[in-house]
User: Fold this.
Amino acid sequence: MNRFAAVTRALRAGAPHSLPNVLAASLAQHYGAEDVTLRLADYSVRSLQAVGLPVAEPVTINGSPAGRAFDTQEPLVEECGPTGRIDVHLPVTIRGDRMGVLSVRLPADRYVADLVPQMQRLSEALGHEILVAERDTDLYVLARRATRLTLAAEMQWQLLPAGRTCTRPEFTLGAHLEPARAVFGDNYDWSVSADHLTLTVANGMGEGIEAALLTNLAVNALRNARRAGLDLVGQASLADQAVFAQYRGRAHISVLLLRLDLATGEVEAIDAGSPRLWRLRDGAVGAVPFDAQLPLGMFDETVFVPEHFTVHPGDRLLFASDGVFDAPSPGGARYEERSLPRALAATRLLPPAQVPGAVLRDLAAHHGDGRLDDDALVLCLDWYGRTGEEPQSDGRDE
Assistant:
């Protein structure tokens, strides 16, 4: 058995909570590694938190070698001065979702450049094992939180998709939710099938536990309808009925629902409230307008009408909650007026996974004191389309 196979076999046999230590022991045995540290990105994507024993200090993503490997999604080899050691920092990424970084320290005489691709494959194998292990242990969830979460925040974070990034041949998307001082009702969700991508961006009213309960009800109702095979109108209607039945109009949730055809780029959309959409095409930024419809749960048996537009290869879409586009500057200017289009244009060369964080940092600067009064949600989607498929034009494409 070669050493790569031996390490992956040890990972598969390891207990869910012991994967970092199993990997460290196996890399020491087969590769001569002197130190192995797994770090996962925290919820704010500002630091990399160590997992397992011995406990290591977190490192910032901005300005550290491990952070550069995380940002660039490329292995980074670092010489440790006169010690004769080599640190190899390897991104741990599964299907486009950036989980963290695996750092391996080797004696200089055990390092050769050909090892790096093999170790990158090992870091990918580790990522897959972590996804399975998370069903049975809290170890990896705990590592992602730099501070303790409130109960409401716990409910909201657990409601989000397992990853913050999704990559397919037709698209790449990345999303981020920045908690404010209190938890409100922002949420995003997605599901990909062979033919369609379904996206949901939501903003529930209220704060704390009340907002978390409302958002949980609406998002799970939407998922239930989607998994039952209902179309977009059916999904909105079922969730609308579920929220109204529970709250009788006392609470409601704003949702932007989209269903993208992966073959053609045709989009079906229902705008039931405040989340909004901007498009970057050929260097120009513009809002994608919709006919506003009632939020889910405001009235009984609301009728929802879908709208349609088409995305073209090369388009970038940016979704934002009202905590983003409505945020005021010290002088009272709303973020969407000038700052948001400027931020979207300025981040055009960044991959989608990095755009939400960059926009939220710009939002904090726009707001003035760096502290937001509302949840702030940003989702960025780059559309590539399928080779050989020509998008159909419509009135929104010009």
User: Anything to note?
Assistant: The first strand starts at residue 35 and ends at 41. The chain is about 30% helix and 30% strand.
